[in-house]
Design goal:
Four Helix Bundle (Hemerythrin (Met), subunit A), alpha+beta, nine-stranded mixed sheet, binds adenosine-5'-diphosphate, Creatine Kinase, Chain A, domain 2, seven-stranded mixed sheet, binds magnesium ion, 698 residues, Ubiquitin-like (UB roll), 3 domains
Length: 698
């Protein structure tokens, strides 16, 4: 048995390494930068760079890279060697403070949504000292933010850090009002639970749809799916167990606290949960986790699918963003606490979240919008596209009592008075039971469940942090001026509950009746697709809020909206073209070949004896011929719909055309092909079926 503590974080330039390898003065100065955002002077940067290089080279690194998260959704890196020529003809390993702090990747081919004309292609990367550097392969990776020369963010980390700062600022105002003067900093923490599928590499290679798009574009329902629920928390197969073991080890070496792993609802589906950490680091770690998941899979002859909906008719994969906020002293502000004063503070933070989620439903929805996640949200598995909050019965009863001024029927029947009464302890198990809510309170944190499995968690957290910062700002503005603090506080909490209770829903979120009720009676938003929600990023109220907290500039918002819609269009277009290609060159020929075999069989029978029945062949042949025709027609129609996109004019119109015509045509072509699959002899079918893929890993 290996001792994890011997190698945990061995590839990370973390606090332990810093302390051991930096002079006390340099270490303290760096800590000040990490903890308080103090400016780093070049002397310190040089010393840190030198120590970092020594350490990295000692661990086998030969290169370094500024590691960043452009708007493509993956991470980017450009490797530079430490090597510099020395006067005697040899080489020395060099790395300066300047190289640590700032890099200049050629940024021209990263999406910028018009922010940076390609002729002034240079953007720069800036070291983010709050996230530790680490070694991957032979490369020292330095987490960085990525900006244009004008200072506009071209990545996901920059606005994330800004949103954390915005929330920190407003939360501290509130805490000081409650007399917590010693609190210096409030940070949000996230623990993202990550779902994924594992299939064999051999089968993966045979499917162009998986290779080009990450999901299956064809595939009839297998005889056995997830209906038995026998996979959920079931015994982990040996090959998968070996994979998980190595994955954990690799993650631990990188200081990532991968903790639990289990099978999920769908066959071949699994989940990994890390222990939560500061949002910024959790985001970097999740990005790394996804990368390592795929790398380790390759070593085991497997492929890890991170797509939101790799298989139609089978549960998709999501990511649960467990979110809370805590002070530098470690106090979780979403924990109800044990004294009345803490309770009042807790209720205020709770209200801030409720208000934020209600006021900015659109931002939360669009923060998780991608072509892939559109297949999941609103289907009968993941949370719906309507955002609501689950609080659990107990907490709900408390809020109701406050709103109506009636006695709380909890442990003792008495009127709730803030700042006087103690709240009951909320039973974590009762609050956690609802799995259908998009945004659930789970005892001392909220779980935002709408994220897709391949989403960066940055986007959702940027919106969540900003929206909560806005609620807190409104509260702080009022409370700071209040003559009677307790009275104003009580009234504000009461009013928030009254104004926003329509977003609280404790029932079954999968229920169709709920969607009707939510949209028609409660007036909640239901943006089913990416084109429906994304343009709302530029709604005046959203631009106003996000710019006022300096999370985004207006130009950055415009560019992001464009990039997200562009990503959507490109993704679906690649899928459509892959379908056309597979239908024409693989599926139609396979059906044709089987038709020929049926005809030959029938003819052979007739040669032997004219009275032998050919009913089976004739019946099947007729059906298949009709489907073959259908496949041809539907392929043409899809091609035509794709061609028409050229006339769209702008990206928003193009996204609407995709939503309204292309996706429908893809669906129709799929139906014909999937039906043909169920009738065509297996030996002719050109790629592995759902049954093969889902039950292929032993
Ligand atoms: P489950 O949701 O499966 O019941 P847990 O609630 O224990 O499991 O944890 C789910 C995830 O939530 C884990 O990644 C965990 O680290 C994270 N988590 C737990 N507490 C917090 C917190 N205060 N803030 C953010 N994430 C948290
Ligand atoms: Mg959970």
């Amino acid at each position: 048995m290996k001792n994890v503590s011997d190698f945990f974080g061995c590839k990370v330039f973390d606090d332990r390494v810093m302390k051991a390898n930096l002079s006390a003065k340099v270490y303290q100065s760096l800590r000040k930068t990490i903890d308080e955002g103090a400016k780093l002077d070049i002397g310190v940067a040089n010393a840190v760079a030198a120590a970092m290089k020594e350490w990295a080279v000692g661990h086998g690194a030969t290169h370094y890279t500024h590691w960043f998260q452009p708007l493509t959704g993956v991470t980017a890196e450009k490797h530079d060697s430490f090597i510099s020529p020395s006067p005697d003809g040899g080489v020395i390993m060099e790395f300066s403070g300047k190289e640590l702090i700032k890099g200049e990747p050629d940024a021209s081919s990263f999406p910028s949504g018009g922010l940076r004309a390609t002729f002034e292609a240079r953007g720069y990367t800036a070291w983010d000292p709050t996230s530790y550097a680490f070694i991957k392969g032979n490369t020292l990776c330095i987490p960085t933010a990525f900006c244009s020369y004008g200072g506009e963010a071209l990545d996901k980390k920059t606005p994330l850090l800004r949103s954390m700062e915005a929330l920190n600022k407003q939360a501290i105002r509130i805490l000081h009002l409650f007399g917590n003067d010693d609190v210096k900093c409030v940070r949000t923490s996230v623990g993202p639970e990550q779902e994924y599928f594992l299939i064999t590499e051999e089968m993966y290679k045979q499917r162009r749809d998986l290779r080009f798009t990450g999901r299956t574009l064809f595939g009839a329902k297998p005889p056995k799916g997830q209906e038995m629920d026998d996979h959920y928390f079931g015994v982990i197969k040996p090959r998968v167990a070996a994979y998980m073991e190595e994955l954990n080890e690799e993650l631990w070496k990188l200081g990532i606290l991968a903790k639990t792993e289990h099978n999920e609802v769908a066959p071949a589906q699994h989940e990994l949960a890390p222990i939560y950490t500061t949002t910024n680091i959790a985001t970097d770690h999740n990005q790394l986790t996804m990368e390592i998941m795929q790398k380790v899979a390759a070593k085991h002859g497997l492929v890890c699918l991170l797509h939101e909906k790799p298989f139609a008719g089978v549960n998709g994969s999501g990511k649960h963003n467990n979110w809370s906020l805590a002070t530098d002293g470690g106090v979780n502000l979403l924990s109800p606490g044990e004294t009345p004063y803490e309770n009042a503070q807790f209720l205020l933070f709770l209200c801030a979240v409720i208000k934020a989620v209600d006021d900015y439903q659109d931002l939360l929805r669009l923060s998780v919008a991608t072509a892939g996640n559109d297949h999941r949200l609103g289907a009968n598995e993941a949370p719906p596209a309507v955002i609501s909050i689950f609080l659990g019965e107990e907490l709900n009863a408390v809020l109701e009592a406050i709103e109506t001024g009636t006695p709380y029927a909890g442990t003792e029947k008495k009127q709730m008075k803030l700042g006087v009464d103690v709240l009951p302890k909320f039973n974590r198990d009762t609050t956690d039971r609802n799995r259908t809510s998009p945004f659930a309170f789970t005892g001392n944190k909220f779980e935002f469940r709408m994220l897709g499995s391949s989403n960066s968690i940055a986007c959702a957290n940027i919106m969540l942090n900003s929206a909560v910062a806005e609620s807190l700002k409104i509260y702080a503005d009022r409370l700071e001026k209040a003559e009677n603090f307790e009275e104003v506080l009580h009234e504000m909490i009461r009013k928030t509950i009254k104004d926003h209770k329509h977003v609280i829903f404790n029932g079954n979120g999968y229920d169709d009746i709920w969607i009707k009720d939510a949209t028609e009676k409660r007036g909640l938003l239901n943006y089913r697709t990416t084109p429906d929600c994304m343009p709302h990023l530029l709604d005046e109220k959203n631009v106003q809020m996000l710019t006022s907290h300096r999370v985004f500039s207006e130009a950055e918002l415009k560019s992001r909206c464009e990039i997200m819609l562009e990503n959507y269009c490109k993704t679906v277009l690649i899928e459509a073209n892959t379908m056309i290609d597979m239908a024409k060159t693989e599926i139609a020929p396979a059906v044709g070949a089987y038709i020929l075999e049926l005809a030959n069989t029938a003819a052979a029978k007739k040669v032997v004896d004219d009275s032998i029945s050919c009913g089976y062949e004739a019946g099947l042949l007729k059906k298949l011929a009709r489907l073959e025709e259908q496949i041809a027609v539907k392929t043409d129609e899809l091609e035509e719909a794709v061609m028409k996109l050229k006339d769209a004019g702008d990206i928003e119109s193009e996204s609407y055309m995709i939503r309204d015509t292309v996706l429908g045509k893809m669906g129709e072509l799929r139906v014909a092909c999937d039906e043909a699959e169920t009738m065509t002899a297996k030996k002719y079918w050109p790629f592995p079926t759902y049954g093969d893929l889902l039950f292929g890993v032993k």
